[in-house]
Amino acid sequence: MRIRFPESFHWGAATAAYQIEGAWKEDGKGESIWDHFTHQPGRVKNGDTGDVACDSYHRMAEDVALLSEMNLDSYRFSISWPRIFPSGDVGPSAKPNPKGLDYYSRLVDELLGAGIRPLPTLYHWDLPQNLQYRGGWANRDTAGRFVDYAGAMTRALHDRVETWMIFNEPGVFTTLGYLIGIHAPGIRDVDAYLRAVHTVNLAQSDAFRAMRAESSQAKIGSAFSMSPCEPRGDTDADAAAAERWHGFQNLLFLEPARNGRYPDAFVHGPPIERMGVETDDLARLAVPLDLLGINLYTRTRITYSEKDPSGLGIHAQPIGFMGGDVGPRTDLGWEVWPDALYDMVMRITRDYDTPIIEITENGCAYNDAPDTVGVVDDARRIDYHRCHLEALARAIANGADVRGYHAWSLLDNFEWAEGYSQRFGLAWVDFPTGQRTLKQSGCWYARVADENGFDT
After folding, report:
1. E-strand stretches of 62-158
2. 3-state secondary structure of 318
3. For residue 101, which of 299, 304, 323, 361 sits 20 to 30 Å off, Cα-Cα?
4. What is the DSSP letter of 136?
5. Which pLDDT tens digit goes with each residue over 101-140?
6. Catalytic: 361?
7. Conformational region of residue 394, where left means phi above 0, alpha means psi within -120 to 50, and beta covers everything else
8. Are strands 435-438 and 427-430 parallel, antiparallel or unpaired?
9. Dihedral in degrees, nearest 10, Cα atoms 340, 342, 347, 350
């Protein structure tokens, strides 16, 4: 059977600034929380850092050439806030770092020259360290600094960039950075986490308004990490726990933007006071996002647990995300479950009145190495993307308004706390030399993009 996608469907790949750029202190760039975090012993596997990463700051043209070789027409990348405003402070009189701004301006021009849509994300986890010294996202003032930065970037690039993502996975960087502490800035504090959640939601809505003021034609969304939450057992308690976890994992930053409220994720209701919610804040959160980005890797299965170790009254124990218990696993241990993409897209389609959706990340870690002639035969990655695209085509056929798919990732790169131990790329990167080699999955994906579909 032939799987085909809508004629205007975007085929793309995704990356993030800290994971690929390197040049961590070149051309006036300031220190980010990930620069700071990775230079602390024991934080990242093997002591890896993103100091060089894929050296994309110096090899940008090669990366755009890879996108062209794969027939892709959309590139989701992120802008490094401290590369533009090194201290994080913006304000009316602050001037962007000219060399940092020039890098992204040249990237946008290179993409447009190749017929590729630039899809920048304003924040993919690299907060200026100077702002972290003041409390980071747990400090309400950070929302204002971010809004100034968002407005400045829109003003600088709106003549060539039409579609923007505000945040990447706010649920991940707040939870892992402020609650669990395994990502930058490495904090374990429930109250700091709760304040960070609300600050980020304020920043998202206020940034949307600031960007719209700079460009009335801009299409603005955010990329949310999502995973369908299924009860593992057949009890009412498991079903209720799964629904609460859906609110916590998938809606904590979407429901405020769409409806000006926090989701029903907490047994006793959202802890509004501990979150730092002030009068009229909730009404301020609601903004008409033009599109929703969905980042999805697998599903989550839920078991009811009487005690919530976080103290937030969620009372759900997620099982399956970090280790599949039915389907096969990637080399990172994540369950391969393609129906997760169908289920998640259809749930959001039903619950939010058929919004415009783009799949902003979907991918898998397989560490296949080049053979003696330099070919990377990563058949498992091809199977992963094929099956997930089949599920996505089914969702589109059933009424979901999905406009694009971005594979994670264009390149093997620095995978946060995993360092360089896990490879998600469609292109192999030899990290000592920076050399790129398109994997067999990249060749397959190129044919899919060229033909706008594939045979099952």
Report:
1. 74-78, 117-123
2. strand
3. 361
4. G
5. 999 999 999 999 999 999 999 999 999 999 999 999 999 9
6. yes
7. alpha
8. antiparallel
9. 180
Tokens of 148: 């100034």
- The top-level CATH class assigned to 2-455 is alpha beta
Contacts of 154 (CB under 8 A, 6+ apart): 164, 210, 211, 214, 215, 218
Q: From CA 130, how far away is CA 36, in angstroms rounded?
A: 10
Kindly give the parts of the chain with pLDDT less than 50: none
- pLDDT attached to residue 89: 83
User: pLDDT digits over 146-155, tens only?
Assistant: 999 999 999 9
DSSP helix, strand, coil percent of the chain (3-state; round to 5): 40, 20, 45
Of the residues 21, 169, 255, 335, only one is catalytic, namely 169
Domain ranges for the chain, please list them: 2-455
Place of tokens 């079903």: 239
DSSP, collapsed to helix, strand or coil, labels residue 348 as helix
What SS3 class is residue 425?
A: coil
* Identified catalytic residue from 21, 230, 361, 415: 361
Residue 52 identity (one-letter amino acid): V
The pTM score is 0.98
What is the signed CA dihedral for 115, 364, 125, 278, rounded to 10 degrees?
Answer: 110
Q: What's the pLDDT tens digit per position in 373-387?
A: 999 999 999 999 999
> Buried b vs exposed e over 314-343: b needs ≥16 C-beta within 10 Å?
bbbbbebbeebeeeebbebebbbbbebbbb
**Alpha-helical regions (H) of 129-189:** 129-132, 141-157, 170-174
The DSSP-derived string for 197-264 is HHHHHHHHHHHHHHHHHH-TT-EEEEEEE---EEESSSSHHHHHHHHHHHHHHHSTTTHHHHHSS--S
Q: What angle do CA 286, 292, 293 make, to 5 degrees?
A: 135
Catalytic residue at 214?
no
